[in-house]
Amino acid sequence: MNEQNDKEIRDLLKRSIAPITDTELRRDLWPDMLKKLSQQPVRVPWFDWALAAILSALLFVFPGTIPALLYHL
Amino acid sequence: MELLQRFAAGDLDAFEALFRQHQKEVYAWVVRIVRDRGIAEDLTVETFWRIYRARARFNPEGNFQGWARRIATNAALDHLRSARQETELPEDLPGRPEPDPAVRRETREHIQGAFHQLPAKYRLVATLALIEDEPYNKIAEATGLSAGLVKIRVFRAVRMLRKSLSSLGAPLGANK
Fold first, then answer.
1. What is the least distance, in Å, from the CA of B103 to any CA of chain A?
2. Residue A29 and residue B133: Cβ atoms within 8 Å?
3. Which residues does chain A have within 8 Å of residue B98's beta carbon, measured at their own beta carbons?
4. In chain A, where the domains are located
């Protein structure tokens, strides 16, 4: 009975959702590709992030160093 | 140097040549999965973007077309996963044949709704196998699964549809 129902569902699915027949690409996508390539986000190396995290942690633990840091900037 | 070797070495001209050579095939594959022209165009570009980023991992002796199709399938699957909640099956795809008019509208809506609710990984294989009539081994190659697992997923998708339709009270025999 289940097998019969499964077969019926397969048939129903085929008749309810028609296959795509027109699969032709209407335009050249290379300009879009170039745009995406030029929008490549700037990648920050992991050690820069690590350095920033260490500096933030130090400033948080020793807030007294903030004025000294600002003075030297 | 061969085109694929130049591509793997990061040559943009080689990438452009490959893009122009394969964009139609990639689009044709993706549009059958996502069933929307605009989304398929975006996903084609996304596929080649992923290809470009992964160029160093590509073996120039390998099959570029198969590799591209696999990346395209993953991109389409990611789209199905992210868009599951908000998109409906598009009805306005030009050139798309009408569903069988012998199937009652209510039944058709039930089955389309239930199909749309399938988890993305099941909808992907069910679309390709049951609607687009793609052979299991081709789907297996594109998804990176074994043909056996594709068969199991299709079987489970059908079972899920049956359960879903039963819970909606859709009479299976009343399709005419």
1. 7
2. no
3. 18
4. 48-73
CATH number of B105-168: 1.10.10.10
User: In which residue ranges of chain B is CATH 1.10.10.10 found?
Assistant: 105-168
Q: What is the CATH number of domain B3-83?
A: 1.10.1740.10
Q: Find all residues with CB under 8 Å of B26, minimum gap 6, and list them.
A: B44, B47, B48, B68, B69, B72
**In this predicted complex, what is the ipTM?**
0.78
Could you identify the residue written with the tokens 């052979």?
B135
With a CB-CB cutoff of 8 Å, which residues 40-59 of chain A face chain B?
none
Of B28, B49, B158, the CB nearest to A6: B158
Residues of A in contact with B93 (CB under 8 A): 20, 22
Per-residue confidence band for B92, with pLDDT thresholds at 50, 70 and 90? very low
Residue among A1, A3, A17, A21 with most chain B CBs within 10 A, to mutate:
A17
Residue B111: is it exposed, middle or buried by C-beta count within 10 angstroms (0-12/13-18/19+)? buried
Task: For residue B31, give the nearest of B66, B63, B73 by alpha carbon.
Answer: B73
Residue-wise pLDDT tens digits, A15-56:
889 999 999 999 999 999 999 999 866 667 788 889 899 989
First to last CA, chain B: 61
The tens digit of pLDDT for each residue in B107-120 reads 788 888 899 999 99
Task: Give pTM, 2 decimals.
Answer: 0.77
Mean pLDDT of B15-31: 97
In chain A, whose CA is at the least distance from the CA of B98?
A: A18
